Amino acid sequence: MDVHCTTCGEPWDVYHLRHDAIYETDLSHAEAKAWTQLSPQIKLLDRYREKFRAVGYEFGGSILNVLRCPACPKDARPDPDKAAMKAGIVELLGDDEDGIAAAMEDFGL
Ligand SMILES: [Zn+2]
Predict the structure, then answer these.
(1) What secondary structure does DSSP assign to 4-45, as a single string?
(2) What is the CA(46)–ligand 1 centre distance, in A?
């Protein structure tokens, strides 16, 4: 299942975001592995957001809400309509990552 970047539309595999993307950061292998076991909210603490931002990812309220990604053109801006819909889905479904992924796919987000 894929979700799409709010800014450039690049598809991102849900499994990759949840389990693999963290290894692109400069966290140690052990710390990256530990991260995959954290709860959805802890995964997006500022410390981890900064690590992700350094390699091109920005997320909304969920790791599945990709606002910007490594494929984004430098000056591109997030689509405000898509950003609002995605924020709404995340707010509604909270920590239910499978539900978020399914809803975003249904809406082509
Ligand atoms: Zn992008």
Answers:
(1) E-TTT--EEEHHIIIIIGGGGSSS-HHHHHHHTTS-TTGGGS
(2) 20
Question: Splitting the chain (109 residues) into consecutive groups of 10 residues, what average pLDDT does each group show?
Answer: 97 97 98 96 97 98 97 95 97 95 95
Residues in the chain: 109
What is the pLDDT at residue 92? 97
Gap from CA of 41 to ligand 1 centroid (Å): 22
Range of the domain at 75: 2-106
Spatial distance between the Cα atoms of 3 and 74, rounded to a whole number of angstroms? 20
Question: Domain total for the chain?
Answer: 1
